[in-house]
C-alpha cells in the first residue's frame, strides 16, 4: 500500500492528500513532524537513518521524523511513530513549526514541519527499517561535531537544532517543569 501524506498551504491548512513519493518528486508542500527526545542528563537522542531510506540514508538526525497519516491527530501520530521507529513512549509537546525546502537529486523535501520534544531515560528499541543506529549526545558535543562534519547530518536537523536547544534552555533557566 502506498503511503499518503497531507498536502497543506503555507498556513498549514489541509488542501488534500497524495502519495508520498509523488509529493517528494513534485516538490509539494506537505505536513511533517520532527521529534527531539532528551534524557534527564540533558542529552539528545539521535538516530542514524537506515541505509535503505530513499533520501538522506545513513545520516544522523533527530530522534524521529515522519509524516502524519491523513485523517489522524498530529500528536497521536507523532507518539505512534516514535514508538514504531524507536520503541520509545514519551509525553510529547509541540514547541514550534516552520516551513523548509531542500533538494536531494530528483526529490524535493518541502515540509510544514511540527517540532515536538519529550523525555526518555533508557535504551531505544530500533526498527531497523527506519534507523540503523542511535546515540545519546550532549548538545555542546553535537554542535561541535556538526561544525566539523556537517555532511554526517540531515539538512532539517541542522536547520532546527539551535532553535530547539534555545527554547529548552530558556524553559529550564526559568524553572519550567518540562515533563
From TrEMBL:
<comment type="pathway">
    <text>Isoprenoid biosynthesis; dimethylallyl diphosphate biosynthesis; dimethylallyl diphosphate from isopentenyl diphosphate: step 1/1.</text>
</comment>
<keyword id="KW-0413">Isomerase</keyword>
<dbReference type="Pfam" id="PF00293">
    <property type="entry name" value="NUDIX"/>
</dbReference>
<dbReference type="InterPro" id="IPR000086">
    <property type="entry name" value="NUDIX_hydrolase_dom"/>
</dbReference>
<dbReference type="InterPro" id="IPR015797">
    <property type="entry name" value="NUDIX_hydrolase-like_dom_sf"/>
</dbReference>
<dbReference type="GO" id="GO:0046872">
    <property type="term" value="F:metal ion binding"/>
</dbReference>
<dbReference type="InterPro" id="IPR011876">
    <property type="entry name" value="IsopentenylPP_isomerase_typ1"/>
</dbReference>
<comment type="similarity">
    <text>Belongs to the IPP isomerase type 1 family.</text>
</comment>
<dbReference type="GO" id="GO:0004452">
    <property type="term" value="F:isopentenyl-diphosphate delta-isomerase activity"/>
</dbReference>
<dbReference type="GO" id="GO:0009240">
    <property type="term" value="P:isopentenyl diphosphate biosynthetic process"/>
</dbReference>
<feature type="domain" description="Nudix hydrolase">
    <location>
        <begin position="28"/>
        <end position="159"/>
    </location>
</feature>
<protein>
    <recommendedName>
        <fullName>Isopentenyl-diphosphate delta-isomerase</fullName>
        <ecNumber>5.3.3.2</ecNumber>
    </recommendedName>
</protein>
<keyword id="KW-0460">Magnesium</keyword>
<keyword id="KW-0963">Cytoplasm</keyword>
<dbReference type="InterPro" id="IPR056375">
    <property type="entry name" value="Idi_bact"/>
</dbReference>
<dbReference type="GO" id="GO:0005737">
    <property type="term" value="C:cytoplasm"/>
</dbReference>
<keyword id="KW-0414">Isoprene biosynthesis</keyword>
<dbReference type="GO" id="GO:0050992">
    <property type="term" value="P:dimethylallyl diphosphate biosynthetic process"/>
</dbReference>
<keyword id="KW-0464">Manganese</keyword>
<keyword id="KW-0479">Metal-binding</keyword>
